[in-house]
């Protein structure tokens, strides 16, 4: 698992970073599906063979909580 070290607003750099790491799938919250930012990133990543998966909303779970759990020492 990799946690993106930059804001997703910078879709070009994010896409480059993912490609360098050989990431094949990216998961983000379903609320972003269809947004301008993620449409651009999804198109860019698809050209590099990276699939974007939109996870359904789960009450009480956020990407922030997942990141916090993943980086605990």
Describe the 3D structure:
The protein is α+β, with helices and mostly antiparallel strands and 73 residues long. Strands 1-2 form a two-stranded parallel sheet. Helix 2 links the parallel strand 1 and strand 2. Helix 1 packs parallel to helix 2. The two termini are 15 Å apart.
Task: Assign an overall shape.
Answer: globular
Low-confidence sequence ranges: none
Helicity range? 40-55%
Strand order across the largest sheet? 1-2
CA-atom Rg in angstroms: 12 Å
Count of helix runs: 3
What is the succession of H and E elements?
A: HEHEH
Largest sheet: 2 strands, parallel
Estimate the mean pLDDT confidence.
80
Structural class: alpha+beta
Beta strand %: 5-15%
Distance between the termini: 15 Å
By DSSP, the count of extended strands is 2
């Amino acid at each position: 698992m990799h946690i993106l070290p930059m804001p997703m607003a910078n879709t070009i750099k994010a896409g480059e970073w993912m490609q360098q790491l050989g990431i094949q799938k990216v998961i983000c919250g379903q609320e972003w599906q269809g947004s301008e930012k993620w449409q651009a990133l999804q198109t860019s990543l698809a050209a590099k063979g990276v699939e974007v998966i939109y996870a359904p909303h789960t009450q009480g779970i956020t990407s922030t909580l997942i990141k916090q759990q993943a980086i605990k020492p």
